[in-house]
Amino acid sequence: MIIDVIGAGSLGLMYGGALIYAGEEVRFWTRTSEQAAQLLEAGMKINQPDGQVWRVQAGSFEARDIASLPEVWNQKPGHMIMLMSKQGGIQEIMEILTKVRKLDAALFCFQNGTGHIPVIAKAFPSTRVYAAITTEGAKRTDKAEVTRAGYGETQIGWSNHPGMPIESEVDTLVDKLNKAGFDTKSSNEIDRLIYRKLVINAVINPLTALWRIPNGELLTNQERREVMKQLYSEAVAVYDAHQIEYDTNLWEQVVAVCQSTSSNWSSMCMDVLHGRPTEIAAINGSIVAMAREAGMRAEVHQLVCSLIEGMPLGEE
C-alpha cells in the first residue's frame, strides 16, 4: 500500500518518517525540489523525546516536488494521502491534484481550522476525505531532520460532509500509525473534536505568537489570562449562536493544554519568529467568519487576526 505524504514540514516528516521506519511504503511530496533532493540524498532523522534517534535510510522511500505528483500518480496511483500542509497551501495543492485523471484514494486532512474538508470533498468526488486531529508536536531542525516535542494523541474520523466513508480505510491508517509509534484512535465525533481544537488553538496560538512566549507562560500573570478568557468567551458565544456543542469544561481544557505543553512553542509563534505566513485566517479567522454568519461580531478575534496578519514576513 502506497501512502502519499503531501507536505514535508515538521509533522509531515515526523509522521511520514515514522511510517517508513515501521516498514510502510511512503512517497513524500515536497514544496521544493531542493528539499526532495536532500531527503533522497541523506535520508532523514527523527529525534524522539526519550533520546532515541530514528534514522530513515536514503533509498527506502520516494520524494519529489509536489508539481510532479499528477504525472507520477497517473502512472502509479497511491492508496492513501496524508495531507500535512497548512491551510494556506491547500488551494495550490488542489490545483495540482486536479491534473490527476482520477484521484480514487482515501485523503486524510491534518489541518487546523474549519471549512476546508467539504471544499476538498466537493472538488474530488472520487476521493474519500477524512479528518485527523492530533496533539502531536514537532520541530523541523533541518530539511531532513525533525524533533518530536512529546507524545500526543491522534484521532481520525469521518467529518460531516457529502460522500460515502469506508470504515476500513480509517481502521487501516489507525493501525499503521499505532505501529509507527503514534497513539491513534478512530472517532465518530471528529467534528466535535475539530471545534474543540479550534477554540484551543484560537486562544493559545495568536497570544503566544504576539507575546513570543511558550504556551505555559500564558498562565503566569492575570493580564494574559484575561485576554485568553476574552478570546474563549467570544468563541463559545459564536458556538452557541450556531448551536455547536462543546464541553462544559472547555475553558479548563484550554488551561490544561497550556500546562501540559508548557515548554512548547506554538506553530504560529514559530511562524512569526521566522517571518513565515501563519494559519491565523484558518483559526481565529474561522471564528470571525462564523460570527459574521450569525450576525455577530468577534472583535477580539478580529483584533488578533489584524495584529498577526500585520507582522512582517521575511526569510527564515
TrEMBL record:
One Pfam family per UniProt: ApbA
Coiled-coil intervals: none
UniProt domain Ketopantoate reductase N-terminal: residue ranges: 5-157
Domain Ketopantoate reductase C-terminal: 190-310
E.C. code: 1.1.1.169
Record pathway: Cofactor biosynthesis; (R)-pantothenate biosynthesis; (R)-pantoate from 3-methyl-2-oxobutanoate: step 2/2
InterPro entries: 6-PGluconate_DH-like_C_sf, 6PGD_dom2, ApbA, Ketopantoate_reductase, KPA_reductase, KPR_N, NAD(P)-bd_dom_sf
Keywords: NADP, Oxidoreductase, Pantothenate biosynthesis
UniProt cross-references to SUPFAM superfamilies, sorted A to Z: 6-phosphogluconate dehydrogenase C-terminal domain-like, NAD(P)-binding Rossmann-fold domains
Top EC category: oxidoreductase
Keyword Oxidoreductase attributed: yes
Catalysed reactions, semicolon-separated: (R)-pantoate + NADP(+) = 2-dehydropantoate + NADPH + H(+)
UniProt similarity note: Belongs to the ketopantoate reductase family.
Known function: Catalyzes the NADPH-dependent reduction of ketopantoate into pantoic acid.
Protein name: 2-dehydropantoate 2-reductase
Taxonomic source organism: Paenibacillus shunpengii
